[in-house]
Specification:
Among the domains are: about 40-80; about 90-155, Dna Ligase, domain 1, CATH 3.30.1490.480; about 260-400, no CATH class. The protein contains 15 helices and eight strands. It has helices at about 15-20, 45-50, 55-80, 105-115, 120-125, 145-155, 175-185, 190-195, 235-250, 270-285, 285-300, 310-320, 325-330, 360-365, 390-400; strands at about 40, 45, 90-95, 135-140, 160-165, 225-230, 375-380, 385-390. A two-stranded antiparallel sheet has the order 1-2. Helix 7 crosses helix 8 (about 190-195) and helix 10 (about 270-285) crosses helix 11. The longest helix is centred in the first third of the chain and has 27 residues, at about 55-80.
Length: about 400
């Protein structure tokens, strides 16, 4: 088991802060079966009698290799008949068992999904004496579950109807709340879900990595994924399911363990890392560019006199891409959101601005090397280009290249 940490510190190494055989037997000329013929049942008995001892030894050795190869091949086939890789830990998969399906058919589905091999399925099935007890239904299994656990669930059968909850990457808390309300047909209102997410400390005793979030909301930790929830789930049930998924995903990706990251004493908490990851998530959609964008922000954070100047933090409260004036001043009616304006304020915003993907969190923990302090993006969604610069002059030239100026 991993040991969660309360504080996480990091600065990129390149930042100014961190700078601180084959053979054929001879056949007789006489017709097969006639006097003088040495061919019986298709073999040349004379040739066979004349085989030397070294040749016999060679044939025996080759036969042994072939037999061993066949045994290994058959064993591999039996253990993984579909050549399916094991499912990723924490990943949820829907398995539907139809009425009348045999245990063998059910086993093949589980093998194909990567949960187990056929021998493992047979062993768990026999241990539970469940060959005729598997109940039809739609099940949600999670990578990492044991064959015994899966068999037990199918013996018990589905007891409740389930709903599908899909949370896109980069969703705000308000967006997640609206999705929950829609999926539950209003049984859980958006406001009720927001209220239930209002204080991260409520869940910090179970999820210790939330401690640095204090009494702030769970914004940033409602992990984007497709979930299957019971139709009578409460807001608390759903929240815990999302936090469980966050923990499984981060631990599997080695993004909860400080031993795999080059931390120093800059004082950033895990909550701070999620804040920055949420900004990276909103600033660029291309995974290959996220490491560079994270590097830009780390360089700015670690250099005196620089601000993040991220449009994404302004969009968070404004709701649309800001004009230059809207970014550098606070429009009427938005004064309460001033701490989120990274053009006006140095450092990170008070909370994350969305639920970042694992790729954005990884980018923040493992940024690309470089001395970039600027970036700009242009082009249509799905085909955007991001250019990076070390100086303002280079940045201006990049903006002209992309048609932004």
């Amino acid at each position: 088991m991993y040991q969660p940490h309360d504080r996480y510190t990091y600065a990129p190494r390149n930042s100014r802060m961190a700078q601180s055989r084959r053979g054929r037997a001879r056949m007789s000329d006489a017709p097969y079966g006639q006097p003088g013929s040495n061919m019986r049942y298709g073999y040349d008995t004379v040739a066979a009698r004349k085989l030397s001892m070294p040749v016999i030894i060679a044939i025996v050795a080759i036969s042994a290799v072939v037999v061993v190869g066949l045994v290994v091949g058959i064993s591999a086939l039996l253990n993984n008949p579909s050549n399916q890789e094991a499912i990723e830990v924490g990943k949820e998969v829907v398995i539907t068992i139809d009425e009348g399906e045999s245990a063998s058919q059910i086993g093949q589905k589980l093998v194909k999904a990567g949960f187990m091999t056929m021998p493992q399925f047979s062993q768990a099935l026999n241990a539970a004496d469940a060959a005729t007890k598997l109940k039809p239904g739609t099940y949600v299994f999670v990578g990492g579950m044991t064959p015994d656990e899966i068999i037990r669930i199918m013996v018990e059968g589905m007891k409740k109807e389930q709903l599908v909850l899909m949370i896109p990457e980069g969703s705000k808390l308000e967006t997640v709340a609206a999705i929950v309300s829609n999926v539950t047909n209003g049984r859980i209102s958006a406001q009720a879900f927001i209220d239930a997410c209002g204080n991260a400390s409520v869940y910090a005793s179970r999820f210790s990595w939330l401690r640095s979030a204090g009494s702030n909301s769970l914004e940033g930790f409602l992990y984007p994924e497709t979930y299957f929830i019971d139709e009578d789930s409460t807001a608390d049930d759903i929240i815990r399911k999302l936090l469980d998924q966050f923990e499984r995903t981060m631990f599997t990706a080695q993004l909860l363990d400080t031993n795999v990251v080059g931390y120093d004493s800059t004082g950033y908490t895990y909550y701070d890392l999620i804040k920055l990851a949420s900004i990276v998530e909103k600033e660029v959609a291309n995974d290959t560019d996220r490491g560079k964008v994270a590097s830009v922000f780390w360089n700015r954070l670690s250099t005196r006199g620089w601000k993040l100047e991220s449009c994404a933090t302004v969009v968070y409260y404004l709701g649309h891409q800001p004009t230059d004036a809207e970014a550098r001043t606070m429009p009427a009616g938005y004064e309460e959101y001033r701490p989120y304006n990274t053009y006006i304020n140095a450092g990170l915003p008070p909370t994350p601005i969305c639920s970042p993907s694992v790729s954005s969190i990884r980018a923040v923990l493992h940024p690309d090397k470089g001395n970039y302090f600027y970036f700009c993006s242009g082009g249509e969604d799905g085909n955007r280009t991001t250019l990076f610069a070390e100086t303002l002059d280079q940045h201006t030239a990049n903006q002209r290249t992309l048609g932004i100026l």
